[in-house]
Amino acid sequence: MLALLENEEVRKFIKWVLIIFLLLTVLMVVAFNYALESLHRQTVENNIAIMGYIADQHPELEKELVPLFTRGPSEEIRELGEDVAKKYGYTQDLPLAANETFSNYKSIQLNLVLALALISLALFLTAALWFLNKLYRKIRSYANHVENIVEGDLIPIPCEEVEGDIAKLSHGFNKMVKTLSAAQKRQWKEKLLHKNIISDISHQLKTPLSSIKVFNELSMDVECEDAETKVFAVKIEQQVERMEWLVRNLLIMARLETKSLEFKREIKDITKTVTIAMEPLKELWQKKDIKINTDFEDDIYMSHDEKWLAEAVSNIIKNAIEHTPNSGKIAIQTSQSPIAVKIEVKDNGAGITNKDKPHIFERFYKGKYNTQKNSTGIGLSLAKGIVENHQGVINVTTKEGEGSMFTITLFKDKSI
C-alpha cells in the first residue's frame, strides 16, 4: 500500500482529495450555521409575536416578558405551561410537520445536505476523472509507441524526472527500445554482410561462367565430326545457362532479404505485366506441347513494379510448366475487386502432397513430384519475396493428382 505513495500521480490525487475534503468541511460548517441562524430568526420572530399578544392582553406583565424568553422560565412556570399545553395536545410528541418553524428548518437542512452531496460528488468525480485521464493518456501514449515499435519505428518515450511506477515503466520501456535498436542494427549488419558475401560470390562466379560460355560457343562453332563432343558441348551450354540463372536469382534473393532491392512502382496494367512474364517461357511450353488458356480482365491498373512483378509471375508460370505433363493445360487468369487484384495460374499436373505443401516456398526445397533435373528450388521462394514486397500474398490450392493453382493477391492502394 505504501508503495502507491511513491507515485507522483497518486500523491497529487490524495492532495486534491484532502483539499476537496477541507473545502466541503468549511461549506458544511457555513451551511449548517446558516440553517441555525435561520431557525434562530424564526424562533425570535415567534417569541416576539407571543410577547406582543401577552403585552396587549396584560400590559402589567410587559417588563417580565423579555427576561422570560431570554433567561428561560422557572420550573414552576414551565410545569404550569405543560399542563395548559397538554389540554390542547401541544406536547414534545407533537409531529415535526405541525411546527412550522422546525418544518421550515428541516426543509432548509435537507436542501443543504442534498446540495452538499451533489457538490461533493461533482468535485470527487472531477478529481477522479482528472487523475484517470492523466494516467490513461500516458497509457495511450505507451500503446502508440508499442505500435510504432511493431512497425519498426524504435523511438524512446519522453521520460519525466519523477518517482513512481509509470516512470519505472517508461525507463524500462526505453531500455527495451535501446536493446531492440541495438539488435536491429546487428541484424542489419549481418544481413548486409550476408548480402555482400553472396554478391561477391555471384560476381566471382560470373567471370569464369562467361569464359566457359565463350569457350564452349567457340568449340561448337568449330567443325567437329564427333557427335558425342557436340552433345557434351550442348550440355555444357545448358548447365552454364542454368548456373547463370542460379547466380542471378541468388543475388536477387540476397537483395530481397536485406531490403536493398529497389522497387519502382508505377500505375500500369497488370495484364500487360503478366503478358511480359509469359513471353520468355513460350518456347518452354511449346516444347512440351502445353496449351495455355488465358482469361484477362481489361483495364486492371494498379501501382506496381512491372519488371519485378513480371519476374515473380514468370517463376510461378515456369513452375507450372515444369510440373505439367506433355500436352497438358495451364490456365492463367487476371481479375479485380474493389480492394484487390488477383493473378491465378492453374495447371493439371501431379499436384502437391500434404507433406510438401508447407515447404514449397522455402529456398532449395524440391517436392515429391519434382522430376526436373535442372530445378533449383528457389523460383517460388523468389516469387513469394517479390509479392510480399508489393504488400501482397501468394497462396496455393492443390489436390494430389489433379494439379495446383497459385493465386497472387495484390491489395489496391486506397490513396490512388
Description:
- Helix content is 61%, strand content 11%.
- The chain has helices at residues 8-57, 62-70, 75-87, 100-150, 165-221, 227-257, 270-278, 282-287, 306-322, 379-389; strands at residues 266-269, 291-296, 301-304, 329-336, 340-347, 392-399, 403-411.
- The chain folds into three domains: 2-150, no CATH class; 166-256, Helix Hairpins; 266-411, Histidine kinase-like ATPase, C-terminal domain (Heat Shock Protein 90, 2-Layer Sandwich), CATH 3.30.565.
- The protein starts with 7 loop residues before the first helix and ends in a 5-residue tail after the last strand.
- It has a five-stranded mixed β-sheet with strand order 2-4-5-7-6, covered by helices on one side.
In short:
The protein is an alpha+beta fold and 416 residues long. 61% of the residues lie in helices and 11% in strands.
Which helices and strands appear, and what pairs or packs with what?
Layout: H1 8-57, H2 62-70, H3 75-87, H4 100-150, H5 165-221, H6 227-257, E1 266-269, H7 270-278, H8 282-287, E2 291-296, E3 301-304, H9 306-322, E4 329-336, E5 340-347, H10 379-389, E6 392-399, E7 403-411
Parallel strand pairs: 2-4
Antiparallel strand pairs: 1-3, 4-5, 5-7, 6-7
Strand content: 5-15%
N-C termini distance: 56 Å
**Overall body shape:** rod-shaped
Helix content: 55-70%
SS content category: alpha+beta
Spatial order of the strands forming the largest sheet:
2-4-5-7-6
Total E-strand runs: 7
How would a textbook summarize the main sheet? 5 strands, mixed
What gyration radius follows from the Cα positions, in whole Å? 47 Å
Give the mean pLDDT.
79
Low-confidence runs (pLDDT<50, min 5 residues)?
A: none
Q: Given the structure, what is the number of helices?
A: 10
- Number of structural units classed as domains: 3
Q: Note the quaternary state here.
A: single chain
Helix-strand pattern: HHHHHHEHHEEHEEHEE
Subcellular location: Membrane
Enzyme class: transferase
GO molecular function: phosphoprotein phosphatase activity; phosphorelay sensor kinase activity
Catalytic activity: ATP + protein L-histidine = ADP + protein N-phospho-L-histidine
